[in-house]
Each structure stands twice: as structure tokens, then as C-alpha cells.
């Protein structure tokens, strides 16, 4: 397992996911970690009211990714990527394109009712991924 995709969203689970990777990667040399966050589609009406929203969100995401990269202590290369669109679909597409061996992401901890009504990004990734997925809780 040489290529890991770490999906971050700014939640408390990001720190646990970073610790998980640092622990696992300490035993592996020449690892590649791709840290990614996905900018969701923003409603065009909202963009008309607040035209700088997308740029502000992107700037915040860049800071989040840079902060995450600093906390990784792997023996290898670390890259960060900002993706746009449906979160699960973009993560899976990125994993496929880059030949990711393992996807690591946090669990938001939604209740069963919320998962049923809202859906869950992590559940969608688990269902649709052709590669192993670790959900850190």
C-alpha cells in the first residue's frame, strides 16, 4: 500500500485520520499521501448574493490542506488537492485516476435517521469504491 488518499473536511475527525495515517505510515517507506478536500457545488443564487463566497471557501480549504500536510509525518511524498463537485464522486474519481491503494476519511457520526434522509458521504464512498476504505471515528 503505497498511495493513500486522505479526505479532509475540517471536522474533528480530520485529526484522528491524520493520526491513523501517521501511525500506519511510520512502518512504510516511499509512501505517497494525497490530501484532498472537495468544494461542493454552490447554488448560483447564493453566488449572486455573495459573489466572493467560492473564493473565500477555496482560500479556507487551501489553509485546511496546508495545515493537514504539516501534521503528516510520513516517509515519502505528500500532495494536496482541491476537488469540486459531488464529494463522494470526486473522491472516487480522484482515487481511480491516481491509482490510490487506500482511502482514509473521517465519519461525521450522523444518526441512522440522518443517514437515511441526507445520505452519507462515507457510506457512499464505501459502497462505490473498488479499493479499501478506512472510516476513522
Structure description:
With 137 residues, this protein is an alpha/beta fold. Helix 4 runs parallel beside helix 6 (121-128). It is built from six helices and five strands, in the order βαβααβαβααβ. The mean pLDDT is 87. A five-stranded parallel sheet has the order 3-2-1-4-5. It has helices at 13-25, 44-49, 53-71, 87-98, 112-118, 121-128, and strands at 3-7, 29-39, 75-84, 102-106, 133-136. The protein has one domain (3-136): Rossmann fold, CATH 3.40.50. Residues 2-137 form the UspA domain. InterPro entries: Rossmann-like_a/b/a_fold, Universal_stress_UspA, UspA. Belongs to the universal stress protein A family. This is Universal stress family protein. Pfam families: Usp.
Report the CATH C-level class. Answer: Alpha Beta
The CATH superfamily is known as HUPs
Strand order of the largest sheet: 3-2-1-4-5
Instruction: Output the CATH topology.
Output: Rossmann fold
Using the alpha-carbon principal axes, give the shape. Answer: globular
Question: Which stretches of 5+ consecutive residues score pLDDT under 50?
Answer: none
Spatial separation of the terminal alpha carbons = 21 Å
Class by alpha and beta content: alpha/beta
Summarize the amount of helix as a percent range: 40-55%
What is the residue-mean pLDDT, rounded to a whole number?
87
Strand content: 25-35%
> Counting H and I runs of at least 4 residues, what is the number of helices?
6
Q: What are the secondary-structure elements, in order, as H or E?
A: EHEHHEHEHHE
Please give the number of β-strands. 5
Corresponding CATH architecture: 3-Layer(aba) Sandwich
Largest sheet report? 5 strands, parallel
Amino acid at each position: 500500500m503505497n498511495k493513500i488518499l486522505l479526505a479532509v473536511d475540517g471536522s474533528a475527525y480530520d485529526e484522528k485520520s491524520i493520526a491513523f495515517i501517521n501511525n500506519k505510515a511510520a512502518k512504510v517507506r516511499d509512501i505517497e499521501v494525497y490530501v484532498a478536500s472537495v468544494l461542493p457545488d454552490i447554488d448560483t443564487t447564493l453566488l449572486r448574493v455573495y459573489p466572493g463566497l467560492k473564493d473565500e471557501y477555496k482560500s479556507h480549504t487551501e489553509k485546511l490542506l496546508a495545515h493537514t500536510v504539516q501534521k503528516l509525518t510520513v516517509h515519502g511524498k505528500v500532495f494536496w488537492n482541491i476537488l469540486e463537485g459531488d464529494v463522494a464522486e470526486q473522491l472516487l474519481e480522484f482515487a481511480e485516476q491516481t491509482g490510490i491503494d487506500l482511502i482514509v476519511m473521517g465519519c461525521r457520526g450522523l444518526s441512522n435517521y440522518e443517514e437515511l434522509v441526507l445520505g452519507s458521504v462515507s457510506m457512499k464512498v464505501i459502497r462505490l469504491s473498488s479499493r479499501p476504505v478506512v472510516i476513522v471515528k
